[in-house]
Amino acid sequence: MNKAQWIPIIVLRIVAMAAAFVATLLMITSHDSAKVLGMTFQAKYNNSPTLKYFVIVSIITTIYSLATLFVPPKKSRRPILVLDLIVTCFLISSFSAAVGVGQLGKQGNSHAGWLPICGQVPKFCHHVSAALIAGFVAVILYVLLLLFSLNNVLDLVAFKA
Amino acid sequence: MNKAQWIPIIVLRIVAMAAAFVATLLMITSHDSAKVLGMTFQAKYNNSPTLKYFVIVSIITTIYSLATLFVPPKKSRRPILVLDLIVTCFLISSFSAAVGVGQLGKQGNSHAGWLPICGQVPKFCHHVSAALIAGFVAVILYVLLLLFSLNNVLDLVAFKA
After folding, report:
1. Contacts of residue B103 in chain A, CB cutoff 8 Å?
2. Whole-structure pTM over 0.80, yes or no?
């Protein structure tokens, strides 16, 4: 792998790590409370198993991205490519599940009788939305990273064939 | 690509196509109604944008899996690998979002004041659960397909290097 192939991958990893870290921070610090019918109602990420899953995957992605920066590029192409694929799968999964639940928080579902909660806890919703944007950036960067790595590998096949 | 590499991919594609097709059928036919406070309440997949997204991606996966069966394996390794990756991303995304919303349907979220609906519309919930199981099978098969294709490509690199 030459420098022209290697540097973009390093840059993508560093930015993806930053995005995953920001997503974690924003989701963990999302917090708001509202008074409904005299009762105080707390909105936190850990009230939802889906948002907890998002935080766990974001933390793992941050640590994984940091760790792979110290792996020599030539020696471990196969395990890194497979691990990149697995991390990307979990990132997409946690992001999509959180968006699905976030959409319900924002718009509710009248058929199911679920009211939107963003009117009551706007600070919480803004934080979660920002975390989802950072999560989306991490997803896009990991997909690009995979496509770039695949392209390098396939060029090698075409070159050596 | 020799036969030992090619046949498992064809088999994985056919089974993934069947799983995506079954997931589509089960989700589209999920339907139940309940009377709550004298009002009839209809539960259908298209009451939820997330479940609609699941159906659209399942249909696309079925058609894509069918189409790729007719593509000659040697000529188009690169576009097929990239398209496989993109389809897998969308499959994981739609499955995870649907599970996130399905979990709310089953267990609700007391903090958000969202009551579970599966007690009122059990037939709908069973259908959606079955569709999610079929969707999960399609996800696993596409991830295996990707890992298998990657392995073939990397073997080629190791062999030619």
Report:
1. 49-50
2. yes
